[in-house]
Amino acid sequence: MISRPTTQQLIDAICIELGNKVAPTITDPVIQIQLEMALSVLQTAAVRSGNELAWMHEEREAIEETARQMLEALPDASAAPLQEALQAYTDGLTDSLYLEEAQQDYARASEVLSRAIEAAYESGDAGHIDAVGRLMDQRHANQQSVTGQFMAAGRA
Amino acid sequence: MTEAIDVRAQLEEFFRRRSAHPDSVKVVEYELITGGYSRQMSRVWVEDAGERRGFVVRQDPPPGQAIIDTDRATEWEVLSTLHESGKIPMPAPLWFDPTGDELGSPGIVIEMFDGEALVSLGRKCDPSELPGFAPRLAELGGALAAFPREEAPACLEVPASWDDYIDSRIQYWIDAEQRHTDRDPFMRMIGAYLKANRPPPVPLGLVHGDFQVANVLLGDDGNDVLIDWELAHIGDPREDLGWCMMASVTQPPDVIGADEEAFYSRYREISGLSEEQVNPTTTDYFLLLASATVFVPVTEQLAALDKGETTGIQVAYMSPAVSGMHDVFYRALKRHQAASGGAK
Question: Would the CA dihedral through B49, B51, B52, B54 be positive or negative?
Fold first, then answer.
């Protein structure tokens, strides 16, 4: 397969051309907004294409580690939903680099994270809340790398 | 071009039927309003017996194109009832086509208000002028919070209690995440956080549902009006402040933040709510609670795209929009946590 230019470089090249040459020729305000939206989606797709497999892998490893630490500390009743999600994650894990399967691994890890968050807030334990907070910081930082500061198109 | 001509002809016929001088009626100008994510809106200028009047037409878009589906009949009842009350500043609702037989799709015709949107004025004014708009925005927000619930439109459901209402709004976040095709820990975190950090209650009342600078038109002498009532409901009035803060990030300027003290003190004065009940921290709580109304339908559109049931640039654009909203939610949650001691 052709690996250079990368997917990210190809999309970026198209975005530059659309923004600099096509956008100035459009006079219909509805189409202008649609192009602005399309460029925004393409730019996020470019960043995702370059990073999403690695990010999903890194995040789910961190989620699994935190969930295991929390399970050791939580009382049995609070731990059950988290334990169940972690079991489903480990049973279903493919560790594949194909996007569809990698996304499914990530989705199961995300459910583990959600249940860890719920257990942390239910317990009111500052240590657990900080631990899930660090996982959310990581996720938030990755998402921000994709989108940056979002401004709604066409709402001038 | 043919479509534009057809729309003009359709509108001309609509206004002729409502004129004492039908033969004189002519649509002299017509333009689509861009930027709306739910309704199809246009401005129309009509000459009738030598007099020129402007109208705004709010219609259902073609099926599957709205990010949020709302009901025109409900909106018409809300507009009519609130306008008749004289307690809420708003442009006059004039006519309603419930079936779309006349306008092409169900639609409402509203008097055009002679004023500029706060969002556009706020972006082009000198930054030193922005704080001056904060008490004006508080006038409108306060009028909403002070509106007598017993005079609210009958079509708006009244929750059994404040606790039931807040519970149901929190559960909406959690249920929506479980229905979604993607797992979203931000939604679940919001649900868990809101459960653990309830603010002091206030009486349930009228909520505009999309209270933000884009929906405030500034009139002469401070006679400002509120538009776009399709999400109005009975709930916690602080939802409007939360949503306003949410919108101010993705659609600046932040008028409340330009002079927080002036805004909150005027808002409390008009609404009768206390400082403990209304402050920047409770607003962050309601930013999280209220945003589900817009956020959840957006995720549903993305789910439809994921399942191959829909397509379109506007729907795809909701993916970066979701990420942008996650960012606002997360920062609001952290601010709330820092200010309130959070989550314990």
Answer: negative
Cβ A147–B184 below 8 Å, yes or no? no
Asked whether the beta carbons of residue B323 and residue A150 sit closer than 8 angstroms, the reply is yes
Pair B313, A34: CB distance under 8 Å: yes
Contacts of B317 in chain A (CB under 8 A): 37-38, 40-41, 153
Q: Does the distance separating the beta carbons of A122 and B326 come in below 8 Å?
A: no
Q: Is the pLDDT confidence value at A65 over 70?
A: yes
Partners of residue A110 in chain B, C-beta under 8 Å: 183-185
Query: Where are the domains positioned within chain A?
Result: 7-145
Q: B195 and B178 in one domain?
A: yes
Q: Which residues contact B202 (CB under 8 A, 6 or more apart)?
A: B162, B236, B237, B238, B273, B277, B278
Q: Do both B88 and B222 map to the same domain? A: no
Residue B314 with chain A: CB contacts under 8 Å: 34, 37
Calpha distance B332→B338 (Å, rounded): 10
Q: Which of A33, A124, A151 has its CB closest to that of B250?
A: A151
In this predicted complex, what is the ipTM?
Answer: 0.95
Of the candidates B289, B138, B313, B315, which has an alpha carbon nearest to the alpha carbon of residue B213? B138
Q: Domain span at residue B195?
A: 116-340
Q: What value does the mean pLDDT of chain A take?
A: 94
Using a CB-CB cut-off of 8 Å, the residues of chain A touching B251 are: 151-152, 155
Answer yes or no: do B297 and B334 share one domain. yes
* CATH label of the domain that carries residue B43: 3.30.200.20
| Contact call for residues B224 and B216 (beta carbons, < 8 A) | yes
* Predicted TM-score (pTM) above 0.90: yes
Residue B176: other Cβ atoms inside 10 A = 18
Q: Do B344 and A118 touch (CB under 8 A)?
A: no
